[in-house]
Design brief:
Blueprint (H helix, E strand, L loop, with lengths): L22 E4 L12 H15 L8 H12 L2 H7 L6 H10 L10 H9 L3 E5 L4 H11 L7 E3 L1 H4 L29 H11 L6 E5 L2 H9 L3 E5 L10 E3 L5 H4 L7 H7 L9 E2 L2
Parallel strand pairs: 1-2, 1-4, 2-3, 3-7, 4-5, 5-6
Bound molecules: magnesium ion.
């Protein structure tokens, strides 16, 4: 588990010369790799297949229902639980992500070098499960670029089966409890609390306009990725995450000062934050 130290807000002389930004929160899918990989579509097809095969929902109803639940509840999975379907979360994730063409994701040394050159804390914030997040980061060659991952399991700890190591049987586990996910404000505020960041000094990157809107409401600086035009209320728009240096040079401003002021976390390997 990652132990996250706060970034200093003042130097030893008490001057408020802290960095403009102390932390960067990155969505994963369709943000750190382009939409053109087809993962988004493949994922939706797998969700639709799960709905018809496992939940026995009429095939003709599935596409409309899938979209409606996504719109209404943040993710189709959260929506299915909210309207009363019962299924195992891990089985759902395994079915939906297990068949994704991960081989299409290639190492991205350009993004890797960009990330490693950013002096801020960097954390992944995704609605996906830990296994998928680790797989994607590994394929992109970015597994050691982030301090930690805030994922489905992090935001929904009460939905996890009992931890065997505590010796206590957790009978309260229920498969149909409400799932917390972006774009709910509560999910974003939970991530801010877990990451222990000041939203005013944090930049949030996401390809979803509705996630950007909630992030903005939570007080974060926002960057919509995969869009060449700013989408209100996003503060910036990036066609590709590769354009980050041209679009937001402030990330690197005063780098020398920031490096001395930011407390590096003790554990630098990618950890799932909980
Ligand atoms: Mg995304």
């Amino acid at each position: 588990m990652g132990s996250l130290g706060p970034a200093l807000k003042m130097d030893t002389m008490g001057r408020t010369t802290a960095a403009n930004y102390e932390c960067l929160l990155f969505d994963l899918d369709d943000t750190l790799y382009p939409l053109s990989t087809g993962f988004n579509l493949a994922c939706r097809r797998n969700i639709e297949e799960f709905m018809s095969q496992h939940l026995h929902i009429d095939e003709s109803e599935v596409p409309r229902m899938c979209l409606e639940l996504y719109r209404e509840h943040g993710t189709t999975m959260a929506g299915l639980k909210a309207v009363g379907y019962e299924f195992d979360n891990d089985e759902f994730h395994a079915f939906v992500h297990g068949k994704l063409p991960y081989e299409k994701l290639k190492p991205d040394p350009v993004l890797r070098n960009l990330l490693l050159s950013m002096p801020q804390r960097k954390i992944i914030f995704t609605n996906a499960d830990q296994k998928h997040a680790m797989e994607v980061l590994g394929r992109l060659g970015l597994e050691d670029c982030f301090e930690g991952i805030i994922c489905f399991e992090t935001i929904n700890p009460r939905l996890q089966p009992a931890d065997n190591t505590d010796g206590i049987e957790n009978n309260s586990f229920s498969s149909n409890q409400r799932i917390l996910c972006k774009p709910s404000l509560e999910a974003i505020e939970t991530a801010i609390r877990i990451a222990n960041v000041d939203p005013k000094k944090t930049i949030f990157f996401d390809d979803s306009a509705r996630n950007i809107a909630s992030a903005k409401a939570a007080g974060l600086h926002t960057v919509i990725v995969g869009s060449s035009v700013p989408v209100p209320p996003a503060d910036h728009a990036l066609n590709s995450i590769h354009n980050i240096k041209e679009a937001i040079p402030e990330i690197w401003e005063g780098e020398g000062e920031q490096l001395e002021q930011v407390i590096q976390p003790a554990a630098v390997e990618t950890a799932v934050l909980a």
